[in-house]
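Sample 3 of the quickstart, ligand adenosine-5'-triphosphate:
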Amino acid sequence: MDDEIFSKYLKTESVFKDQQSLNQAWVPNNKQKLLCRQNELKKLLLIHRPIITTRGEFSTNTLVLGKGGIGKTLTVRYFGKKFREVALKDDIKLTVEYYDCLQHRTKSSILRHISERLHYSAGHGYSDNEIMEQILKELIKRKESLLIILDEVHKIPPDDILALLNASIGFGEQNTRFCIICISRESDWYKVDNEKISSRIQEVIRMQPYNKKESFEILQYRRNLAFRDGVLEDSVLDLIADIVYEQKNMRTGIDILRSCGLHADEHLLSSITSDMVLQSRESISPSFRADILDSLSFHEQLTLWAIASTLKHTGNPFTKVDESYEFYKMICEELGYKAHVEMSFRKYIRNLASVKAIFKEYLNPTAEKKGRQIQVKLIDIPPEKICEYFEKRIPSKEL
Ligand SMILES: Nc1ncnc2c1ncn2[C@@H]1O[C@H](COP(=O)(O)OP(=O)(O)OP(=O)(O)O)[C@@H](O)[C@H]1O
Ligand SMILES: [Mg+2]
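Result:
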């Protein structure tokens, strides 16, 4: 970009007052609030109140369920933050740790992280069970409580979930100080749930999507935080609330706010119109989660890009592994990266399917092709959109 563009855009005022408040990681600060989730906050508080009343000698496992984009992550993170503040005021030592299980996919990874967080190193020689025992003993010794939030918990294998849930009851300790809040969409939870796991969950909170009035109220609040006065009128906001209500997904609404703001800034406009909202809705798919794409490893990203390119090229809804591997090698070559072998490529496909970036199914063996063949497709996202996403983000290697 040359100097002219730099100075032009840096001189003009942005429609945003606080663009960061539209990030996925936003949690209300002390001057802000969480709207429309008072009931859920109250339930979480009553469930965990004994941590304060028993001065920490308390343990419980809770599960928060609900559809995508309805504020599960936000509500639980906010609760964790507020609850810790209240406990500290009462001189109760409480550590709250949030884990996105897309990033921490095993109990080992979580346990090792906790022991680091508690500032003692478990060392390499210990088994998971030993580390768990050390953590529980350490908490008792220090009179400290631990509340861990396992978001997208279905990404952890069921046996690992069970072992973590057992921690509070399985070690024969009287005064365990370890609580867990698991979060999952209902449609994901059923894949890992079993009788043993559900018997270790004391409380289940089911969250419902927002109604029209709540959707509008929340969007209004987020607009006031993010935009300058007058940028986005109530009448236009009402249209976004309709879309949120229709899709039962607040994430779509927040994505529309962000994308319209960026569009206005790019075209040096001072307000957001209904047309811009309708246009941005077209390009926002409720299940398109950029944070999932960003959490993939580099070659997983290249693999996904290759699958999308194949589908874009052939116009078919499905592709087979060997077909998309050819595209993968082409992309690698074009950008100057060394392609990995097909076996690794297959592993990346498995990982992509497990984070639900793609859908994978087995075909029955045919006379020509013996053995199980796999075909893959994208979930709800047009291949053009994936290609565009990576074209913008993955640069060619400096040669
Ligand atoms: N009550 C609320 N007030 C303000 N913003 C909200 C509220 N509920 C949800 N949001 C916003 O909507 C978006 C989606 O919320 P969140 O990520 O918590 O959904 P989720 O239920 O965890 O979805 P998923 O199952 O896909 O992880 C976020 O940007 C969040 O900030
Ligand atoms: Mg979430």
